[in-house]
Amino acid sequence: MSPVLARNLLVSLGTAWLIACGGEVSEETNASEDALGESQTRGFVTPSLALADEQRLFARYAHLDPARVIPDNLLLDTVAMFDANASRLLNKGHVAIVDFAKPSGKKRFYDLDMQTGAVVTHAVAHGSGSESGSGYSTRFSDTNNSHMSSLGFVVTGSTFDGEHGRSLLLFGLSPTNAHMRARDIIIHSAAYVSESSSRQGNSWGCFALDPRVKDQVVTHLVNGALLYAGLGKPNVGARPTAEGQPMPAPLPDQDAEAPSACAGDGACNPGNGGSGRICVGGTCTPGCRTNAQCPGTTTCESGMCR
Length: 306
Fold this sequence. Notes:
Largest sheet: 8 strands, mixed
Structural class: alpha+beta
Helix content: 10-25%
Number of domains: 2
Oligomer: single chain
CATH topology of the largest domain: L,D-transpeptidase catalytic domain-like
Number of helices: 5
Order of helices and strands: EEHHHEEEEEEEHEHEEEE
Distance between the termini: 33 Å
CATH class of the largest domain: Mainly Beta
């Protein structure tokens, strides 16, 4: 892939841009893109909440991710940013969360419906400069030509047709990704990403998705949606709800809920709702026998929801 690839992208200023994922860009191009990025990102604030405020915020958004597929720390940071900047977000229908603490073989891109609370998970590549050698991203940068992924909050822009087809512009909102637009970091599809792969290939810092799911994700996030790339932590304790009651247990690879008595798998999956638990020896325990017992888009692999 050449360092700079020309695409016919007409923006509101009537300018044709040169865009390549993580490619080299000239100082002149940087200046024009930074100027447009400033207009896209102006006015956003990053909140800092006390513990009591965090609990109240979680309670207000208790309908989100009921199965706790998304690490609580990433979800809390995202809803705090969403809530503080709701008037600035032109697309409030969906947000995206990326957990770069997980390896690339895991579905770590979370497409969250802010109305229904439903979560759809996808595989996503990280930058080759961030690659540890074992599928993990261990280094992050906002520097041109580093080919690394960067962490922080993002607001999406418009779509364009480029080397990878329909792709989505991104504008960094954090000090750790403020040059995202100048670095040509975008959402695009790539043949080296597959939902069924145990390890993905590497981008030049872009959020590269399986071509089969990219268009749906882009449609959900286009024109002013929030994206957050961070490092997830294991869920600890209960998440407050609007009624002050704890949320369901996190997935089995996080913290497990206290066991409850059961006579069969159905008691552990009320309404066949996919709680990621089965009945073993009269007690509900983390596990699965079929995909229907797993939450969201996770599947049953070797007796556990993944």
